[in-house]
């Protein structure tokens, strides 16, 4: 039994979260390496292949990979919706008010553990997205300026570097080589 049962976790939820965190870890590692190597998709999503953009994206994704790959990370995870933000369309959220990353019911019963679809949303990408918001993981934390590939690809370099979904989409694009290029 894991130590956070008072946070609404069950053994089932815990196992799902651990698998999703492992997927997040692998996505973020791949994205960090791709960014450091100057992957062309940086141009699409961050509008630049400059060393500073490559380093920024790689550093943030490396920090996300470390967090997702840690058994008991510094971020607190819970399944009780203390702020009432959970809806049918929100699988998880991070709030500095209560500090934990909160997993909502759709995380467990509506989204897939792994999606092999074109930029499909899944549990691992959900955790990756929310982890970019956590100040203790990488500072400054990201914001939600745009969601999805379509809108994230329209942001300026500065906006994209502050946008959570820009990192999520970049990580997904790393594994979908035939897409994500404008």
Written description of the protein model:
This protein has 182 residues and is mainly α. It has eight helices and three strands. Strands 1-3-2 form a three-stranded mixed beta sheet. The longest helix is centred in the first third of the chain and has 26 residues, at 11-36. The radius of gyration is 16 Å and the shape is globular. The termini are far apart. The model is unreliable at 1-7 (pLDDT under 50).
Q: What is the SS-derived class? A: mainly alpha
SSE topology string: HHHEEEHHHHH
- Summed over residues and divided by their number, the pLDDT gives a mean of 84
Beta-strand content estimate: under 5%
Report the principal-axis shape: globular
Cα-atom radius of gyration: 16 Å
Q: Show unreliable segments.
A: 1-7
> Could you give the count of β-strands?
3
The major beta sheet can be summarized as: 3 strands, mixed
Q: How would you sum up this structure in a few lines?
A:
This protein is mainly α and 182 residues long. It has helices at residues 11-36, 41-46, 51-68, 105-109, 123-131, 148-152, 157-162, 164-174, and strands spanning 77-78, 92-94, 101-103. The radius of gyration is 16 Å and the shape is globular.
List the helices and strands and how they pair.
Blueprint: H1 11-36, H2 41-46, H3 51-68, E1 77-78, E2 92-94, E3 101-103, H4 105-109, H5 123-131, H6 148-152, H7 157-162, H8 164-174
Parallel strand pairs: 1-3
Antiparallel strand pairs: 2-3
Helix pairs in contact: 1-3, 1-5, 1-8, 5-8
């Amino acid at each position: 039994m894991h130590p956070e049962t008072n946070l609404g976790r069950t053994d089932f939820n815990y196992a799902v979260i651990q698998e999703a965190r492992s997927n997040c870890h692998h996505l973020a590692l791949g994205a960090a390496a791709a960014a450091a190597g100057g992957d062309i998709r940086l141009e699409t999503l961050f509008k630049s292949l400059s060393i500073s953009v490559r380093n920024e994206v790689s550093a943030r994704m490396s920090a996300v990979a470390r967090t997702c790959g840690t058994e008991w990370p510094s971020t607190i995870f819970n399944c009780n919706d203390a702020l009432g933000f959970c809806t049918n369309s929100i699988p998880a959220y991070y709030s500095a008010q209560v500090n934990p990353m909160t997993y909502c019911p759709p995380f467990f019963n509506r989204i897939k553990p792994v999606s092999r679809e074109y930029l499909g949303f899944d549990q691992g990408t959900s955790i990756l997205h929310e982890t970019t918001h956590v100040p203790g993981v990488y500072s400054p934390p990201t914001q939600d300026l745009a969601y999805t590939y379509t809108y994230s690809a329209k942001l300026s370099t500065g906006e994209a570097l502050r946008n959570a979904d820009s990192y999520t989409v970049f990580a997904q694009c790393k594994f979908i080589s035939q897409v994500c290029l404008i």
